[in-house]
Amino acid sequence: MIKKYVKKISICIFAILVSGCAVLQDDEISSLKIKVLNLETLQRRQESRLDELERKVDRLEAQLRKELGEKFIQAQSKMIAEIEETKREIALLSGKIEELHLQREAEGRALRKGFEEINLRLDTLDVKIRSLENEMGNLTARLKELSRMEINGTQQTPGPSQLLQNGPIQNGTTPSPIASKPAQIQEPPLKEEDYYKRAFQLYERGDLKGAKALFEEYLKKFPKGKWVGQTYFYLGEIAFKEKDYETAILEYQKLIDMPGANPLKPRAMLRQADAFLALKDRKAAEILYRRIIKTYPGTKEAKEAEAKLRALR
User: CA-CA distance, 13 to 182, in Å (whole number)?
Assistant: First the structure.
């Protein structure tokens, strides 16, 4: 704007000088020339100042763009870094949560297994205690009968039923005399736990046939009894010891197919794999060993299965 204004003034002055040079005096012409020169000098200064201002504006714009660009890049980089760090923290927390979840599941399995083993041991101890109580009761009754016989002074050779009831006499001695008219002692019918207890005692003593007969009798009388799973297992063990591996596999499978948890299931599956191996069915045995490792991780049976798998390779 200033440049245009100065140019207009210069043109006007020049026109006045040209048109009126004939009538103006020399002093007036000199004065006008000085004014024109002053205006031209002022014009150049204004132009120079404008150029300087434009350069400063350009520099400021460039600096501003640069600073804004750098700050934007820094802010963007910082935001990306924070996002990545947040992602890493989330992944770490997710891993810890998963680890805690797996640990809790493992602890839960271990606790359940521990409770099952404790319950099994308690049941076994309960059976043994009741067996001892019954033996003590029979011994007390026998002692009372012997005392009555000594008091009455009568003797009678014991019959077969009395021998079965009282049991054999130790050290090869003859049976004690019984009163001529002994009181008829009739045993109460066996309870579920008595059947299982007696069968288990025969198994522990090595009487496999007697144990098998009582176990099978137990299943007939108590098909939904408390010790059905254990009975299947020991029937499988008896068949395994008798080298009837096919029957052993079927008995173990009855326990494995039962709903709910049972502390003998891992052992039954392991013994089932051993039976397949005894039948030269290596593939079936390997499948069962791997299933034990997957289904019951960390157990004694799983460790045994791992060792047997390594031995088969």
Answer: 166
Q: Dump pLDDT digits (tens) for 116-129.
A: 666 555 555 655 56
pLDDT confidence bin for 108, thresholds 50/70/90: confident
170: left (phi over 0), alpha (psi -120 to 50) or beta: beta
Nearest in space to 2 (alpha carbons), one of 52, 62, 46, 59: 46
Give me the DSSP letters along 131-166: HHHHHHHHHHHHHHHHHHHHHHT---PPPHHHHHHH
Tokens 């069968």 belong to residue = 199
Domain 189-313: which CATH number of 1.25.40.10, 1.40.20.10, 1.10.540.10, 3.30.70.380? 1.25.40.10
Q: What is the dihedral of CA 263, 267, 268, 273, to 10 degrees?
A: 150
The reported pTM is 0.44
Contact 177, 145 (CB under 8 A): no
